[in-house]
UniProtKB/TrEMBL annotation:
The keyword Phosphoprotein does not apply. This is Acetyl-coenzyme A synthetase. Catalyzes the conversion of acetate into acetyl-CoA (AcCoA), an essential intermediate at the junction of anabolic and catabolic pathways. AcsA undergoes a two-step reaction. In the first half reaction, AcsA combines acetate with ATP to form acetyl-adenylate (AcAMP) intermediate. In the second half reaction, it can then transfer the acetyl group from AcAMP to the sulfhydryl group of CoA, forming the product AcCoA. The modification N6-acetyllysine is found at residue 609. GO terms for molecular function: acetate-CoA ligase activity. Its cofactor is Mg(2+). It comes from Psychromonas aquatilis. It catalyses: acetate + ATP + CoA = acetyl-CoA + AMP + diphosphate. It is an enzyme of class 6 (ligase). Mg(2+) binds at residues 537, 539, 542. Residues 83-466 form the AMP-dependent synthetase/ligase domain. Its EC number is 6.2.1.1.
Amino acid sequence: MSGQSIYPVSPELAQKSLLTNDQYLSDYKLSIEDPEKFWGDKGKILDWIKPYSKVKNSSYAPGNVDIKWFEDGELNVSVNCIDRHLATKGDQVALLWEGDTPDQDAKITYNQLYTQVCQFANALKEQGIKKGDVVCLYMPMTPEAAVAMLACTRIGAVHSIVFGGFSPDAIAGRIIDSKSKLVITADEGRRGGRTVPLKGNVDEALLRDGTDCVESVIVFKNTGGDVAWFEDRDLDWAEVTQSQPTECEPVAMNAEDPLFILYTSGSTGTPKGVLHTTGGYLVYAAMTFKYVFDYQEGDIYWCTADVGWITGHSYLVYGPLANGATTLLFEGVPTYPTTSRMSEVVDKHNVTLLYTAPTAIRALMAKGNEAIAGTSRSTLRVLGSVGEPINPEAWQWYYDKIGDKRCPIVDTWWQTETGGILITPLPGATDLKPGSATRPFFGVQPALVDNEGNILEGAIEGNLVMLDSWPGQMRTLYGNHERFEQTYFSTFDNMYFTGDGARRDEDGYYWITGRVDDVLNVSGHRMGTAEIESALVSHPKVAEAAVVGVPHEIKGQGIYAYVTLNAGEYPSPELYAEVKQWVRKEIGAIATPDILHWAEGLPKTRSGKIMRRILRKIATGESDQLGDTSTLADPSVVDKLIKENQEIA
Ligand code: PRX
């Protein structure tokens, strides 16, 4: 509640930060009243090959959604992230890499990054990759992931990164949808003392029908592990790169040329290819990185997100490098080999800005002081949180323990679709309330609406929408503009619907309450219930499935799956394990259900629609709050499920 603790910005903090509250308020006002002027100025955070003369050109009109920013400008992303820093920062570390175990690390300066990116871009060109081609990346968290991304941008190729935890089927689906011409991967990744068979998964994915758009696979030898090799298709990263020229002419890209595709889950159907374009995205990533983290020269910045998620794109690679920052890439996990690993990495590299997820914070919090034992974390200056609502207890622990009560926490709300942070505190400007993402960033116009789309005023809860465009907004769903309009702009006319609910308090602060659609957020990973259900029903013994989210202490949400078996099949501990494993294999470990509830039947309306609302209540043990059940075809199904749930609990 808003009446709870407030952490005001101290005068010292306001003084040494980039922005004060007064500056925020006046700049915010300008950004809304005159976006042309505001973003026209702010677009200069980048170097443009051809300056833009137009700034904003966007419409949310039903049936005609069209979003363009800086539309006649031309630029190159790799030039903005590397070349322009060379004169002053050539020897500064651009990428700091920390491996899975503390003995593995590396430093790559801007000069070195330049050479590596140019050489790899030339290698891509040699493979016939040119402007507009889609390149799929399935990479470990090593500097090569960033090198590959930047090399794509240098020559105008569009990258589509698939998170290294996804299954061969998930990779294949994304390759087919995006028509990827080339795949970049590694032999294996490392995570928490285990290896991840990246190349093996790609090999398997490429056996699927429809993946023959892929002409070659470039393999970075990371662990040196044994992998299969297909001579006519596979290429060794080192071999194709080493003799390449160390210069590569950057391609001038129009601001609205595609930069990358990133698949994300929705409430229905297969994952959607979110398309971001070049100019607006990079302006927005650069601006938000700078002001949200209060980035100043000399900062060492660490974002723990994987490069396979949007946070890894905007705030591990593009935002920091566009600002000439030093960004740390970590291949491991926060609690390996010791519980205090995260804090140790902070000390080892003198990290000043730390950006992580509530699920990691809760996992550390569960270990108590062990998570910080023997570390000082005295270099830290700003802490960030992203991916899911941060509960006030976790916020407090993060603030007290990791930040030693010295560092403001920026609880950043945004989405794959938004490209960058939309609602967030700014360190020197915003008084903090634990659990609130606080106020909109420049140019962002949030509103709360009721289910009919009426805008709600004052302190109230509702559906979170955006009333106008910002530069980092997605432009379309790759190859399916109709689905784009349908998904985001058809629920409420003339507004972008986020899929989230939120509450606004009397200070105008936003408190995100979570998804209001059938999307789950498990450990900050977004997943559609429909995807998990379709994996479940593809098991030969499963007849029907319905998936709902339940609160989970560490993961935020856990996956609760109601499963009905085919006639003649019966539940057993073996089948329980087998069905869980099946989903893991179909999608990836992150989608493994926490609980299977063998159900003889599911509650349905007379027209056969599954009543999820009821299933959610039963799963969370709130069967006394089922609401209206008058449309149920067979009420006895519900009584049975309630009883079974009590047995499971
Ligand atoms: O529900 C919101 C939640 O994560 C969703 C977006 O997921 P994804 O596209 O995977 O991007 C995650 C990283 C930006 C949102 O719709 N979410 C993200 N950040 C927060 C959050 N919920 C509450 N507070 C946040 N800070």
